[in-house]
Amino acid sequence: MYNNFIRSPSPVRRVSSILLSRVQPSIPKVSRGFHKTTASTTRRIFTPHTPTTPFQNSSITPSLGAFTSPYLRSFRQTTTRISYHFYNTTAVQHQEESAHKKVVDETRDLIFADVPKVDVKKVLVVGSGGLSIGQAGEFDYSGSQAIKALRESGISTILVNPNIATIQTSHALADSVYFLPVTVEYLTHILERERPDGILLTFGGQTALNVGIKLEQMGVLSRLGIKVLGTPIRTLEVSEDRALFADALKEIDIPVAESTAVSSIDDALAAAEKIGYPIIVRSAFALGGLGSGFANNPEELHSLAAKSLSLSPQILVEKSMKGWKEVEYEVVRDAANNCITVCNMENFDPLGIHTGDSIVVAPSQTLSDEEYHMLRTAAIKIIRHLGVVGECNVQYALNPKSLEYKVIEVNARLSRSSALASKATGYPLAFVAAKIALGHTLPELHNAVTKTTTACFEPSLDYIVTKIPRWDLSKFQHVNREIGSSMKSVGEVMAIGRTFEESLQKVN
Amino acid sequence: MSMLVRRSLSSSLASPSSISISKAIAAATLQKRGLATVSDKPFTITTPPPAPYAHNVTTKPPKAALKLKSGEVFHGTSFGANIPVSGEIVFTTSLVGYPESMTDPSYRGQILVFTQPLIGNYGVPGLFKDQYGLLKYFESDRIQCEAIVVNDYATRYSHWTAVESLGEWCARHGVPAITGVDTRAIVHILRDQGSTLSKLVIGDDAVNENFNKIPYTDPNTRNLVSEVSTAVPVSYNPYGDIKIAVIDCGVKHNILRSLVKRGAAVTVLPWNFDFNRISDQFDGIFISNGPGNPVKAMETVQHLRKAINTYKRPMFGICMGNLLMGMAAGLDVRKLRFGNRAHNVPALNLLNGKCQITSQNHGYALVDDKFPPSWRKFYVNVNDGSNEGIIHKTLPYKSVQFHPEAKGGPEDTEFLFDEFIDRIRSEKVQREGTKFFVPETIDQQTTRVA
Questions:
Q1: How far is CA A428 from CA A445, B16, B247, B259, B314, in A?
Q2: Domain boundaries, position A456
Q3: Are residues A271 and A285 in the same domain?
Q4: B170 classed as catalytic
Q5: What's the complex ipTM?
Q6: Among its keywords, does the record have Lipoprotein (chain B) (predicted)?
Q7: Of the N and C termini of chain A, which has fewer Cβ atoms inside 10 Å?
Q8: Is B168 annotated in the active site?
Q9: Claim to verify: residue A285 and residue A205 sit in the same structural domain
Q10: Looking at chain A from residue 392 to 451, which residues have their Cβ under 8 Å from any Cβ of chain B?
């Protein structure tokens, strides 16, 4: 699927004076005037991002000249925006005739009957920004996949990500990259300058999501007429605000961990009295369970709540379900309401240890058919009710002694677990999610593993995947070395084996 | 090594100051390396009670060997009954639900290979029955498959519903089981050459590769439907408001449950029972799933052919029911190369363009190139384009190749039962007026208005 591109040669590596002489004359000497150009910002060197350039048969692309021409050197030094060009050969390559293609061709009208058409030419992808504990390199993966998917559809992409140590900012991916902080101010500036048709918010983790919600609340997106592709903003808000979320799940009779949102220590203590100890405190709008923890008595809660409230304006007091099984499902839904669960994962450590800090096994190995499909059906019900378009992650707590379960969390975005699920199953979750955001449907997309079948399937593994987190706590002084409900790992290792023992030992 | 230790010991004994130095060094290295968890609190180690073992581990499990008709031999260890068997070898890619699969009558006569590597992890639940008298965790009252082949059998199980291990269960039912086999290799062979026959032997025969004691038996030459069908009519939930006749070609208990829990009174009839004689007593007819070659059940097809022309009330079929319905409508059947046995097969509804993930278990499919004028395609398999269901253009007859009742598998298509039951109800109301069926909600509304 990804081989449909001819990547542009590296601008620096392959410089040849003969070729340059051939290319240079065709580079426009003036910047195109869509917007004001300042010395410190870019000069748009070439604009056609469509495949119909005169250089299609040439072995090099015009961008080569851009970086070597003396008059452009200043551009390279001063700008934060870099443009690249490469062309798509999807149209040229013929996909082999498969049963799947035949079925799709015959039923195309039906499949697309109630899918709103997404007509965009230029899309901004919001990256995750700098990496931190609680938010690791997995969002680089999802962003890169999204950009690849956009490119394959011939859409010009703009990426905002200040982190240079990522693949997604490499020259072979986005058409233009802004190495600017992922904040509302900078994004507003970029959106005003670039005027994209659409914006993708779910590929840059919690940071991108929060910024996106703020942009919408400030009215920037509606003012500039920018479409939010994929999951609508309202769904993102509902999934992030725990009170709204609990109400939404109550509407469809899905049990949710009962929680009381409070914004002061006294309220927290009062809520805890009502619920009963032990309790868990979580903070709303938080990264990697930051500021959350368990409390067995009012004293512990007092100190915990004080700490959490310093990090977040609102905290949630919930009944602790320590010791329950923790199971996650990765669900994908398209605009035509087709749903699949790509992978389910089970935490080796029970509830109480953050997923990022626990050993995770995919697929789940201790669930019976009844439990597996009860949770699967619930996940699909939730994603349909919330109206997610793209990828979503549902986390459950499952009582190990009965069929009782509770939804802990729903992430209506690509998450850490999605990246793991994607690698564990070979199913390109982020890629498919981006394609769905562009108005494609699951049955019509190709299965990246077999190439001949549909993407509307659930990978059935004949191996076991184990993930073990990696900590680097020796770099921090005075840090509590016990793992708990807030994430402390800085990375993770995954291994595949034919038996559980094999995969677990490989990870070590 | 011991030399070194002794030397360091003697040196530390020699001078007391060196002890404190080495302690300091040890403390420094500990600090530098940084352990993942350091706790000041003393902790007590409580040993959990040992999980139940499947075998007495002191006795060595006997060897087992599997031979495919194409010549490949796989060696492993036995964990089930000590009986040599032969049958058609098929594979399922389902991740969960081995008790459901193994008791599914559609697997009759087949040696079942699980591609999910770890099997037996959650043991086997007990023979509990629900309020309708149907088995809660199994699809029939015995293990239906001839034998099972797994990659890695979990000798210890742990689950709140489990009462015995998979090995004990297999041994009790006289079903041999083999573990330690490269199931991936078997699946590759089956995918390349299609499903084939195989033999499983245990003990000395396995060590010596002596497979000659039993012949290859092809279950598809037998009438498997008659083996698994009920001998006498059985009824469930007799006080239901609508009456459905289930033609039992090997019906799964969850199909019956799906019907009775929606309020239907179900009568299970033997596969070759001529239901046309009494069909006016029923509000709908259901044709169940079943094992083997559908051509062996021509009697049912002839009854169905008559019913299609005369019985105007709803009819619904699943799996074998789809094949029989199709044959009665005038379609041909073909044997699939290796069949579709999985919980992840996408089926596209050709009426509304929705794609659903379905649970499947079939080795035969309808040939749907040409259709009789009054029928049309209902579902199609998006992966291989094979037929997944047919529907009558005017009359309320339809059938699907997949299993909407799940168990095991996804429950995405369960709404087909709702549609079937709703159709039966509405037709019954049209036919007989509302005297037989008055929903409570309407009742409440009228009283409130009054």
A1: 11, 64, 44, 39, 43
A2: 324-507
A3: yes
A4: no
A5: 0.83
A6: no
A7: C
A8: no
A9: no
A10: 400-402, 441-443
